[in-house]
Amino acid sequence: xxxxxxxxxxxxxxxxxxxxxxxxxxxxxxxxxxxxxxxxxxxxxxxxxxxxxxxxxxxxxxxxxxxxxxxxxxxxxxxxxxxxxxxxxxxxxxxxxxxxxxxxxxxxxxxxxxxxxxxxxxxxxxxxxxxxxxxxxxxxxxxxxxxxxxxxxxxxxxxxxxxxxxxxxxxxxxxxxxxxxxxxxxxxxxxxxxxxxxxxxxxxxxxxxxxxxxxxxxxxxxxxxxxxxxxxxxxxxxxxxxxxxxxxxxxxxxxxxxxxxxxxxxxxxxxxxxxxxxxxxxxxxxxxxxxxxxxxxxxxxxxxxxxxxxxxxxxxxxxxxxxxxxxxxxxxxx
Length: 334
Fold this sequence. Notes:
Layout lengths: L1 H32 L2 E11 L5 H10 L6 H10 L9 E9 L1 H10 L5 E4 L6 H10 L11 H7 L15 E4 L5 H21 L10 H14 L6 H13 L7 H8 L9 H4 L23 H8 L8 E4 L5 E4 L2 H13 L2
Antiparallel strand pairs: 1-2, 3-4, 5-6
């Protein structure tokens, strides 16, 4: 009789233990796999060298996971704790702990966006970058510094950064974006140079970059880029001065107040193409791929002059008398 009692007690104990174990396992599964609705995007920063316990507690306090210990032991059990990457993470929508862990392991950090349009100057690029909320307070390298670190053959930074949209994480610094933009510009330029048209008046890809920057500043119309490139190429081939206002403006620097006077056209700066023949010494802006392509694939034709119509487009002329007529029609009347 006593043996029977012990037997049933043992059976009942095993059942209770099994039920408790099942209940505990089931609860852990709920904590791990049941999605938690996150009403607003929540930021959690995982610091370099942070322990799994502190990461779990931070996620729990932020309302991203249901249970800190279950998250911690699950990550340890799968040996994923050492694979968690530092960074700034944003959680939103409906996520469970397993999905949160996957985001930490894959390093899917919050990305920021930074856009620089074509035609801006190097100084504009640097100003916009340093003013970005995720970059404020971070040191911006001097042009000479990053040019030297990248073993650049050029001493002037103008035109050497590709105008585009860049994405980066909180841990990135301005030097990272500058390096990325410079390498992209070199890639675009070298690729376009390898596929250039024949009989161009450029000795180096850098000269093509200078021309592209002038084209970028002269027109915003995609349909006119190759036409304007053709005008400038023919003027160079004939030994004519380029006589383009954007180069004069660039050479004036801070002295430019919004209008070019007749005296400005005769001011002797290295960039004044009304005074000096050939290309200016450096680019005058950040040209995009379309302007670079136009510089290396100018449109055939006979026009040697153009003048702004006032609506964003230009009137082209083959002779100087035709050009003077266009100036009277589109410029002097205004």
